[in-house]
Amino acid sequence: MVICLLSVLVIATCGIAGYALRRDYLSRLAVARRPAAVQAVQEVPPELQHLPEPPVLEAATVEILAPSEIFRRLRELELGVSELEQPPPEHDQIVAAAIAAIGDPATQRRYAPRRPNLLPQLMRAINDEEMSRRELAAIIARDPSLVGSLLKMANSAYYRVTISPVESIERAVVILGSDGLRSLIATAVMQPIFQVASGGFPRFPEIVWEHALRSAHAAIPHAALVERADPFAAELLSLISGLAEIVLFRAAMDHWASSSRAARRPDPLVIASLLDSQAATFAWRIGADWELSELILAALEEQMVTSEPTTPLGRSLRFGRCAGALAVLHTNSIIDDATVRLSLPEAGLSPPHLKCMWTRLLQKHEDPRLRKPVKDAGRGRLALAPAA
Fold this sequence. Notes:
Layout: H1 2-33, H2 67-79, H3 91-102, H4 105-111, H5 119-127, H6 133-141, H7 144-154, H8 169-189, H9 204-226, H10 231-257, H11 268-289, H12 294-302, H13 312-331, H14 337-343, H15 351-361, E1 372-376, E2 381-385
Antiparallel strand pairs: 1-2
Helix pairs in contact: 2-9, 2-13, 3-11, 5-6, 5-8, 6-8, 7-8, 9-10, 9-13, 9-15, 10-11, 10-13, 11-12, 12-13
């Protein structure tokens, strides 16, 4: 009996071993019969073999600029310096002396610009879609200086499209349109810009003027569409902020000329410190002297501190000045498109409105006031030609 059981176990073991050997043999046979993988080799055509390897380009540098860095670069552009260096040891004393001199009430009255009498009524009329051209012309007719500037702009080569001169106020209003009339008002508000000596900084008036205009173009849609605030007030705030920098710069140049340091060029760092620390305060003083509304004064006051504004006009002004600074840096090839997009503060504008705003911001501003009168030999009358 035992012998029978052992025989059964031996036979079972042999069967299992044979099955395993057969399975291993079949696996090896299948691998041996599998076709080898064909490696594709792509040969370079003979006519291209002599060409050098393409260069490996570094990834483009994209910057995200904080507002402080945006305005620092703008200040460098205004003052014509590549970088504002560390202040010299006597820097604080010079700045303090200049602030004390400029802060004198008599000095402030001497430099404070006079408010154009018709400024509030005229800007509200321009922004009022229901205001007729005849009513607008009647407002302008009350100020002879505005009439002269209006007709001069309408007859300039930039606006005039007919041979006959423009002699009617109503026709001039139609020709200039809203943008032209805003430029006319900006002329009245920013008039001191053409009375300031550059003092070794030839581009300062030009860049400040450009920044003020572009800031206004950004503040207007932000106030109207995002904050539901008065776009006229946002525009006026932008212009006053630029005007304050011009007034402060002019006062600083006069103070420097009367000091013992007049023989040498003003220190750009001193001028930058004065503008950064005092421009917002001067803007508020201009608004107070002009007896502007409490809402406008509150917006100007909020620009004196770095914290976020809490009033709608204050937020629109802050956004407009930052967007305007980015536009100025872009048009002067300081930053690229990607840096502009990434550095722009959150606006709350829809993509179509934001695109429309940037299209206007990046337009070249041709100022008709810079055209000089020349004799038109063909028709025997004065025309306006670009200034040299």
